[in-house]
Amino acid sequence: MTRLMGALLLTAAGALAGLGAVGRLRERAEGREELAALLERMEFELGRFSAPLPELFGRLAGQFPGPAGALCRRVSEGLLSLGDRSMEEIWGQALETLPATERRLLLPLGQVLGRYGAEEQRMALAACREAMERAAAEARDALRERGRMTVGVSAAAAGLLAVLLI
Amino acid sequence: MDGFVSAAALLPGELRRAAEALGRSERAVCEELRLRRGREASALLAGREYGLGTGPVTERDLRAVLEAATGASLHAAAQQLRRGYLSAPGGVRVGVCGTAVWGESGMENVREISSLALRVPRAVPGCADGIWPALTAGGFASALIVSPPGGGKTTLLRELVRRLSGGGWRVAVADERGEIADAWSGLPAFDVGPRTDVLTGAPKAQAVGLLLRAMGPQVIAVDEVGDSGEAAALLEAARGGVRVLAAAHGCREEIPAGPCRELLRSGVFRRLVWIESCRGVRRYTAEEL
Fold first, then answer.
1. How many domains does chain B have?
2. In this complex, do B72 and A46 lie within 8 Å of one another by their Cβ atoms?
3. Within a domain: residue B69?
4. Mean pLDDT, range A114-131, rounded to an integer
5. Which of A46, A51, A114 has the CB atom closest to B67's CB atom?
6. A153: which residues sit within 8 A by CB, 6+ positions away?
7. Residue numbers of the domain that contains B64
């Protein structure tokens, strides 16, 4: 009985580990989608209203609950030290907590934001958004393709281990 | 904040340190900080330009100044940039030179920025003491302040606004560039008196009309009258019984041409104030028209 319970618990643990991995994949896809949505909003706000960046980031920080909102908050705080630090430095530092792919995609914007006309910035934001949307689609595909398989394989591996141990 | 400190705060790293190394007496007479790409940064002290002992100014330095001046929002200052300058916090005016992008409506942008001039705003309480009796003899009447660029028109205008306001006049200021009162945050950074209303950022011609209708001023003050629309707005104000206090570029040998000359001819101004500079010392004279 105890062995059976142990085997069940081990299998469940494997399934949970698989679910955790799937959760991370989902989180990544959603994070990228939110960042793409942020870039789209920035494109709109800069193109239509030429919104000043401190005001824009301050406003958008409260409108995105995930990594995009956190990024806006960090930039908004960083802009208080503008003059001592450049916008490029502030932007680069604000990206530090993001995953490597997102950081790589967003980093070049630091050389454009606030430095050029609204149209040039809008074009740079659009290019970055398209890249982010592709990355988000890849993450969604990975979630779809690997999601169930990851849970199944994790549970099966744990079950096999349980059998071997019994 | 002191005008010099506000201007120096826009400079990046080494340039800021070099500007801040100026002594108290030099800061007191500093009119502008100038940056030219590939050249040493300099300061205009009492009419003469002196090097600050920096290395050559780079494009990165110029970009950094623009970034600080616009709060990393050059796009939001595009309208101002079309006129060749930016209004920065603290009442600092940043003149911009480079390659102009010219369109149907005039200059649309400045690319490949080559030089910047940071004009240091300054309040000089008491600078109008010498001309005050002449300006107010028989009651204050409309007056035009004339001097060459950088001659101290805005400083004198600000002081006259402060004194008129303190003397009981209800004064409205059309402060398009924010240089007279620096009231971008809603509260004037310069003392412009207790009975002064400031409209910041609106084109002067429209601002005069708005102030007339909204604030019912007894005196309306504008800096650097330069086009016929502004002159027409001031003429309308004068015809409505409002005193006009304005400033324009010019010198004794050359009465301001165009709109200001028209205003003088139409009898809007009753007094002229000349500002002349000799070895860094400003001399103010008022004359009856």
1. 2
2. no
3. yes
4. 90
5. A114
6. A18
7. 3-119
Write down the ipTM of this complex: 0.72
Q: Tell me how far apart the alpha carbons of residues B35 and B148 are, in angstroms, rounded to a whole number.
A: 21
Contact B78 A114 (CB under 8 A): no
Cβ contact (<8 Å) for A114 and B9?
Answer: no
CA pair distance B186, A13, nearest whole angstrom: 61
Q: Helix, strand, coil proportions of chain A in percent (round to 5)?
A: 85, 0, 15
What is the model's pTM?
0.72
Residue type, B51: G
pLDDT at residue B184 in the model: 67
For the cut 70, the answer to whether the pLDDT of residue A165 exceeds it is no
> pLDDT tens, B84-111?
788 888 778 899 998 887 777 677 677 7
Residue A136 confidence class, pLDDT cut points 50, 70, 90:
very high
Q: Is residue B16 part of a domain?
A: yes
Q: Considering its fold, how many domains does chain A have in total? A: 1
Asked if the Cβ–Cβ distance from A121 to B75 is below 8 Å, we say yes
Q: Lowest-confidence range among A27-41, A141-155, B157-171?
A: A141-155
Asked if the structure places residue B126 within a domain, the reply is no
> A78 falls in which pLDDT band (50, 70, 90)?
very high
Nearest CA in chain B to A115: B74
Q: Are residues B61 and B171 in the same domain?
A: no
The residue range of the domain holding A66 is 2-165
Residue type, position B205, single letter: A
Q: Which residue of A has its CA nearest to B11?
A: A83
CA torsion, ordered A43, A47, A48, A50, to nearest 10 deg: 100
CA atoms within 13 A on the CB side of B70: 30
Give the residue from B84, B119, B154 where a domain finishes.
B119
